[in-house]
Amino acid sequence: MAEEEEAAAEEARVDKAVEKSDVAISVRGLKNSFGDQVVHENLDLDVRKGEILGVVGGSGTGKSVLMRSVIGLQTPDEGEIHVFGESMIGRLDDEALAIRKRWGVLFQGGALFSTLTVAENVEVPIREYYPNIGPQLRDEIAAYKIRLTGLPAEAGPKYPAELSGGMKKRAGLARALALDPDLLFLDEPTAGLDPIGAAAFDDQTRKLQQTLGLTVFLITHDLDTLYSICDRVAVLADKKVIAVGTIDELLATDHPWIQEYFNGPRGRAATAAVTREREKTAPQPSDGRR
Ligand SMILES: Nc1ncnc2c1ncn2[C@@H]1O[C@H](COP(=O)(O)OP(=O)(O)OP(=O)(O)O)[C@@H](O)[C@H]1O
């Protein structure tokens, strides 16, 4: 018993230390496998509070499984996961409830309920986590979240089948924001959008992150997204996070996948576009000949 109490006290001390730090998500020694297939082994990652962390890696490297482990949809074989200082492994559902309320998730493809309107979709987490909130306030919250994502108010009574791909993503984002989260998980939010729609979605994500002070865990294959809104990028390969840093820091490493990804033709095009954009917005030196 004394040993159990000591272990619980130690866990509480660790939780407190992590909560006080500037780390929103801490993953240590994570292992995930499906049968014989080991997806993650000894994976470590820290997501800092207030940053947009881009998560990249080849198809099947386990980006979604990592996200699912953090939000409790996948029980890892081994490892520790803390979110805002709270250990997430082995917690009963009701124990983890308080922390679950602090995050919102946009799954790949939006994952909207097709038989519910956009507004009803946004209301799902409010009904689930705050059953005492009455219908009028729920409607008002949903309408506010819908506007927050840049959707017109008229989108509220529409069904997902009546929306464009970009509108579906925004509706999914509105639902992810329903509970005023501190932490947002976005799984390939710009996949399937045209470049203009993707850039607009990125802008919206950045604006929301800045105005609401969000921490964002963003899985993407979209180089433009990485360059334009991510503060740091984590690279998954060889079953773990092989590097985390700014794109400049990643470019300084010599891992072949990183070099091929960022220095391949698409990577170079994205770099060139960002360089052009920076040159356009940088203050011009005055030569005194006005
Ligand atoms: N529920 C599951 N059962 C069995 N295998 C799974 C399951 N979920 C994921 N996997 C396997 O785990 C590996 C990693 O999957 P995951 O979806 O995390 O990859 P990803 O990096 O997100 O890929 P992509 O970029 O293509 O979306 C894949 O080989 C996948 O088949």
Automatic annotation (TrEMBL):
Signal peptide: none annotated. The keyword Cytoplasm does not apply. InterPro entries: AAA+_ATPase, ABC_transporter-like_ATP-bd, ABC_transporter-like_CS, P-loop_NTPase. SMART domains: AAA (SM00382). It holds the Pfam family ABC_tran. CDD domains: ABC_Org_Solvent_Resistant (cd03261). Residues 18-263 form the ABC transporter domain. Residues 269-290 are annotated as: Disordered. Residues 275-290 have a biased composition (Basic and acidic residues). Keywords: ATP-binding, Nucleotide-binding, Transport. One of its GO terms (molecular function) is ATP binding. PROSITE patterns: ABC_TRANSPORTER_1, ABC_TRANSPORTER_2. PANTHER family: PROTEIN TRIGALACTOSYLDIACYLGLYCEROL 3, CHLOROPLASTIC. This is ABC transporter ATP-binding protein. It comes from Sphingobium agri.
